[in-house]
Design a protein that fits this description.
Two copies of one chain form a homodimer.
Chain A lengths: L2 E3 L7 H5 L5 H5 L9 E13 L4 E6 L7 E5 L12 E10 L7 E12 L14 H6 L8 H23 L3 E3 L4 E2 L11 E3 L25 E3 L4 H11 L1 E9 L12 E10 L3 H22 L1 H10 L4 H10 L3 E4 H10 L16 H11 L4 E7 L15 E9 L3 E8 L4 H10 L8 H8 L5 E7 H9 L20
Parallel strand pairs in A: 4-6, 7-11, 13-14
Antiparallel strand pairs in A: 1-6, 2-3, 2-5, 3-4, 5-6, 8-10, 9-10, 11-12, 12-17, 14-15, 15-16, 16-17
Helix pairs in contact in A: 4-6, 4-7, 4-13, 6-8
């Protein structure tokens, strides 16, 4: 489909592609770039014919900003929104002032046309519609910006932990443990399910399965991380996790990514400090490195996003126990949909009241009733609470959950039993408490919730490239 | 189990943990550290009682080197290999010269004992045995070093691509596509497999499954990456991938991590250049940042490792077509186990001959017969070959495989049909060629093979924390 308009100096495109400059590097260059003849490649956002010349707005995804190209009308004959082109031309100062430089095209080559049924014509599309074309939506302003910010947040995460001496652990995805303590799991199998092998009792004979037993997709890398923290001191995981919950909300995905640091020789206040430092470092990083994308979100997705982020960045995170929080909620005079009393889990409305109205900023709640928390959390001396923490931020509510882990062998064993979990599955986990046990703990952060927090994106399905939700596993 | 030996200055451990210094930071400090009183925490590697004083070798996993502590005999009463301790003491110059500094203990606290059945007593253990205690093996020299190098390689990967303007794409793990073009897949389900719903034909009724259709674990993020490269230009994935192959070799895992960069506006030579730059950058990075760990591997795992790595680092990667390689193999006079002729896939023995004997260094083979390569690779004009590449390195053989992708819509459609793949599953993939198609391509690197290449580790099961192989999904 590629045709040549004008003439490329080099005989083949292949010989010139390598010299291509990205839009971002041109727009960020100093003025010595003026007068240079360069090659840019990208996709046409808009093309306007002004009779004696034409304007092309080009994107190559490297930056939020498009790049303006001034072309001869003959060059744009078959160009339309979505078409891919390579353009050689001279960089000139942009008279408009909207951007620093633009290009006077000398030669333009159409690499790939874009027929008139291209779904992303220049108009606003609903996010619901865009999800049905998730393979094309990164070409939109919003999803391009989400992808760039998400990539930067991932990189900032690695930088943050690596610079503090944490080691990255890729914890296992397929697990033989069907009770990691958080929600419904997906089963993984290679058996022929149309005609599966059966035991004498008529149930599935999983001894014939790939791993010779039932296996599942992990819900958390934490238990793996504890094993590595018990050797390397400080580690973090960053990998996909899964929940087979039939939730059709804007806050749930069946497949999502989690970051789970785990620290040896650490108590709950140290874990809380790390969580605060980490969130602040992420905000600082994206404010510096994704300024254009965030300005777009601030204007079109969530008014006030930038002030919300800088507020969190500059606020000390208040520390408060769950018990104190309950007293505040009880005294608030507010009538909540879910009445609150000591022992109940906090709902989103409670978390947001505490964060948005009472503290007017981020806070870290600690020491929750043990009945509502996982078996591995460390018992406090009061006999009623465990050394858990949740980080609550305005607008989003809970963004991080963590705890100090029960490092006392016999206590942990009791807790496994009292939670009706099978002891034999946890022998290796108990070993970590038998040999050289240390105070340790960590937290988990759902990466897509973080993307929502940073971008203001309302629906979590728009915070990941190809969302997996009940009834939908396309692309 | 924790007892106190001597007296800690602070009343509680919790109050002091935060001031803990890691061994690596002490050993790398300048001499102003001498005379300071510091707290170190870690695990006892060895303890030796010399009557008037005692030596403790401590590790906290932050570095390969242990830290030597001189203690009073009374302090070590219940210490044994594997025990966890916190020690406060004065940093002094080490007289031995084996390391720069050591500590004169003032107070020592036993955090967690290590009973005499601790499996990692001071003796060599076989890697086979250590795999059965994968939760404890990161405490060994070898696995601690593997974990640190692996973490660094992951970080170096992110740095390399991010600094070149690539965006990180987390491609999807669960896929509805059962034919991504590479090997057997694991099925993912939430159906009750003991009593599954059936269709009228008696087969599994996957319309009742979580995603309302059959779903699988991904074998590659490439197709997702192509969608994002068609919007953001340059992207890379780094995530887990799966093969349900019943392979019991030292080179295969059922679950492994892959790095897959995908470049828009790129042809095969550009992809080859990127692969060469990337491998060299990784070697440079670990030689600088994991010197102690690599020295250990060089001494105990693979003699000559360091010279092999520096050789690859300093060699230009030879480019050669598959057809040229076949001619060389035919002329070699060598009798191979698998006879070679044009059209056949290269075996490890051929790859190693080309790399180790003919080129005496790394090489990149290109333009393979289309019959032995995947459907998405770009047809060359000769009608016989495709724009594929493999990177071969001494000792390991193939470490990277890649290609330029078929960007011509009608050609790709023909190839999908001729490979007997279901067209309807690939409509979205064809869309990438319908709207603004561009020359593009990329490569895939198996991360555990990279770890083997960098560390000299023989068995791939020792290059990942918790290996998943047929019949084994422990921890």
């Amino acid at each position: 489909m590629a045709i040549r308009c004008g003439k490329m100096k080099s005989p083949s495109l292949e010989a010139t592609l390598k010299s291509r400059k990205k839009v971002k590097s041109i727009l960020n260059a100093d003025e010595s770039i003026i007068g240079q003849t360069l090659l840019v490649c990208g996709w046409v956002r808009t093309v306007r014919d002004q009779k004696s010349f034409a304007f092309i707005e080009l994107t190559d995804g490297s930056s939020f900003a498009n790049f303006q190209i001034i072309a001869e009308p003959s060059m744009i004959e078959r160009l339309s929104t979505g078409a891919a082109i390579a353009v050689q031309g001279e960089i000139v100062k942009s008279p408009g002032g909207k951007q620093k430089y633009e290009m006077q095209a000398k030669e333009l080559r159409l690499l790939g046309t874009s027929p008139s049924d291209y779904p992303l014509q220049k108009k606003r599309h609903s996010f619901d519609f865009l999800r049905t074309i998730a393979h094309l939506r990164p070409r939109t302003n919003t999803q391009g910006a989400v992808a760039r910010v998400r990539s930067r947040l991932a990189y900032a995460t690695h930088r943050f932990f690596q610079e503090r001496g944490f080691f990255y652990l890729q914890s296992s995805i397929i697990t033989g443990n069907d009770c990691e303590g958080a929600g419904e799991m997906f089963q993984v199998t290679t058996l022929n399910l149309d005609n599966p092998p059966k035991t004498e009792e008529g149930t599935l004979d999983t001894s014939k399965d790939f791993f010779s037993k039932p296996t599942f997709l992990t819900v958390s890398g934490q238990l793996n991380a504890e094993a590595y923290a018990s050797a390397l001191s400080d580690v973090y995981t960053f990998g996909p996790t899964f929940r087979a919950e039939n939730s059709h909300t804007s806050r749930h995905l069946a497949e999502f990514w989690m970051i789970e640091p785990e620290l040896a020789f650490a108590d709950l206040p140290m874990i809380a400090d790390l969580a605060e430092d980490y969130l602040k470092a992420l905000i600082t990083d994206v404010l510096e490195n994704c300024a254009e994308d965030l300005a777009f979100f601030n204007q079109f997705i969530e008014k006030g996003l930038l002030s919300r982020l800088t507020h969190v960045q500059n606020s000390p995170f208040v520390r408060m126990t769950y018990t104190e929080a309950i007293a505040i909620l009880e005294k608030s005079g507010r009538s909540f949909e879910y009445p609150i009393k000591w022992g109940a889990d906090l709902q989103s409305e409670h978390e947001r009241y505490l964060s948005e109205e009472h503290c007017k900023g981020p806070l870290i709640l600690t020491d929750y009733p043990k009945e509502i928390k996982a078996f591995y959390m460390r018992d406090n001396d009061d006999g009623k609470t465990v050394a858990a923490l949740d980080v609550l931020v305005p607008r989003v509510g809970e963004i991080i959950g963590g705890s100090q882990r029960e490092e006392r062998h016999d206590r942990l064993k009791e807790k496994i039993v009292s939670h009706d979990l099978p002891l034999e599955e946890y022998q290796w986990y108990l070993d970590l408490r038998k040999y050289g046990s240390v105070p340790h703990g960590g937290f988990g952060l759902g990466f897509e919730r973080l993307v929502q927090f940073i971008t203001g994106i309302e629906n979590i399905r728009d915070a990941i490239a190809f969302p997996r939700v009940p009834g939908n596993c396309s692309f």
